[in-house]
Amino acid sequence: MTAAEHHIVPRQPPSSGSSGPSGPSGSAGPPGPAGSSGDGAGTPPPDRRRVIRRRLITLTIIVLLIGIPAGYLVISAGQSRRSGQDKEAEAAAQGLREAWPSGMQRRIFELPIPGNAEGVQYYETNNWKASRMYVKFRTTSAGLDRFLSGVGTGRAALETGRVTISGRDTKVTGWYFGPGVDWAGTVHKNKDPRPTQNITVNMTDPAAPVVYVVSASTP
To answer: 108 with 203, same domain?
Structure first.
């Protein structure tokens, strides 16, 4: 066949979607990520459910950080009140001790029991509202004067017929302050945190008075 007889095939234009010039190996370069134009402008928006989940987690953490300490304080306060009430009930069940309070207890509650006192009884209660020392003893007329002076008051402050021990404290101690007894009493008040003493004396036998004291201090 002569050269004139060869058919000339026209050059075909590049098809649409061609990826451009081929690489060094003659093959087309790798296609980019779907939907990406190569400049990052096609990054999909964050998942809405993921955003909501993160917000819920953050809110839960905040609630726990605030709620747990507050709940702990409420529980601790309740336990403290119950503990104080239990201790007071336990002391009341045991009754007064036939002994002298320690020197430290006498200093704290400002109870200068005279050295010649007999039949000394006491016990102490503590709760979240107040601490109390209950004391009963028999002394002499001079011993009563020394005690009252040591507290910061005197015999002149004793009011005939007055009982200064409250009904609440009477129930706790079992003390009797009914008729047929020559009672005299006074209340010696101090500024907090010093204790206040409620003093009642059985003066039926002036030579051997029996002293009842409730010394209470507020923490």
So the answer is: yes
Tokens (6 digits) for 161: 């017929």
Q: Please indicate, yes or no, whether the overall pTM of this predicted structure exceeds 0.85.
A: no
Residue 57's alpha-carbon distances to 2, 14, 46, 51, 132, in angstroms, are 84, 55, 17, 10, 50
18 located within any domain: no
User: Domains in the chain: how many in total?
Assistant: 2
Q: Cβ-count burial of 90 within 10 angstroms (0-12 exposed, 13-18 middle, 19+ buried)?
A: exposed
Contacts 24+ apart (CB under 8 A), 191-194: 192/217, 192/218, 193/217, 193/218, 193/219, 194/110
pLDDT tens string 23-81: 444 444 555 544 444 455 555 566 788 888 888 888 888 888 887 776 666 676 566 55
Q: How many residues does the chain have?
A: 219
Domain boundary among 38, 60, 94: 94
Residue the block writes with tokens 């005690």:
147
Decide if 133 contacts 198 (C-beta within 8 A).
Answer: no
Domain with 77, as residue range(s), is 49-94
